[in-house]
Amino acid sequence: MNEKSGRPLDGELTLINQYTRREMTEEDVYVFSIVLCDNEIDRDFERFSDEALDTLKSLFEGVTGVMDHVPSADNQSARIFSCHTEQLQDQHCSDGRIYRRLCARAYIPKSEGNEELILSLDSGIKKEVSVGCAVKKRICSICGEDITSCHHIKGKNYSGKLCYAQLCEPVDAYEWSFVAVPAQKAAGVIKSYAQGGEMMDVEKKLFNSGEQRFSAEEIEALAKKLETLRQQAAQGEYYRKKLTDDVRALSAAALPELGKETLDFIVDKMSIEQLDDLKKAFEKKAAEKFPLKPQLFRNRENEKNHNMNDNTNYKNI
User: Which of 6, 71, 133, 300 has the most CB atoms around its CB within 10 Å?
Assistant: First the structure.
């Protein structure tokens, strides 16, 4: 069957019906392909390890898609019924490694309410996607340590080597979303066709067409703008890291019963403004638990009694 028609391929209805309450037919569902994520360094200066992609393959099967990472029941739009990883031997990442990606097949029930979404997919309006998942480790590409605790900054070059976080050991995949601007540039809905038993990416031909879209002046202006944005991103990342470190340190005093994994899960999802608010709240809580005394505070009565015995000066710390 032709995948471009939105009809399920041979054997896919069986996979889809694992997730349905009634037996669905070819006429009941619209099926499409997605690139969920890959091993390229993304806009956030992070990349999934090859092993992480293999783990995510099983974690994303059966996961629903939403819009803009808003996890509400009304916002659910599609469900993944199969995943696979693929390696493109003739395509390489920016750091030279062979390009690998995690692909999925998803379905949408055909209904009046979904006609607009299906049209948006067919017309290429709804295309880009982003994944929501949790990983155990974020390894610094420079020192090999946890990037949340080392001093390196994502996006900055150290002796000609780019600093980024390698995402390792996924533990959960909770959603994928249609978004306007994904962190991973190649993530999104793809259209493909069968040729010689292999699935060929039509978009890849477009990207390799060599078409010149910008003038030399425009390219130079864009390069300067990109460098400015990278510097601003590096500064923002440094400030965020400092805020995060402060929050972690204060949480031990303000809320010691809060586990490290829970705290990491919370702070990783917070904006800079939210981290700043949390830091202030922790500072207030810590101050209530451990009120500070002036460094030279003295008990006057004790001082009086002591001074009767000798002339030594003491201070409470």
Answer: 133
Sign of the Cα torsion 266, 272, 278, 279 reads positive
Dihedral pair phi/psi, residue 84, rounded to 5°:
-155, 150
More confident residue, 314 or 236: 236
Average pLDDT over residues 2-29: 86
Q: Where are the domains of the chain?
A: 3-207, 216-289
Reported residue count of the chain is 317
* pLDDT higher than 90, residue 174: no
Q: Which two tokens stand for residue 205?
A: 């031909």
Kindly state the DSSP code that residue 18 receives in the 8-state scheme: T
Yes or no: say if 77 and 68 are a contact pair by the CB < 8 Å rule: no
Q: Say if pTM beats, i.e. exceeds, 0.85.
A: no
Question: pLDDT tens digits, residue range 105-118?
Answer: 999 999 988 898 88
Q: How does DSSP assign 217-240, residue by residue? A: HHHHHHHHHHHHHHHHHHHHHHHH
Tally of CA atoms within 13 A in the half-sphere of 81 that contains its CB: 22
Looking at residue 298, what is its pLDDT?
46
Q: Are 79 and 19 in contact (CB under 8 A)?
A: yes
* 183: number of Cβ within 10 Å: 14
DSSP of 130-188, one letter per residue?
EEEEEEEEEEETTTSSBTTTSS--TT-EETTEE--EEEEEEEEEEEEEE-SS-SSTT-E
Instruction: For the beta carbon of residue 93, count every other beta carbon within 10 angstroms.
Output: 14
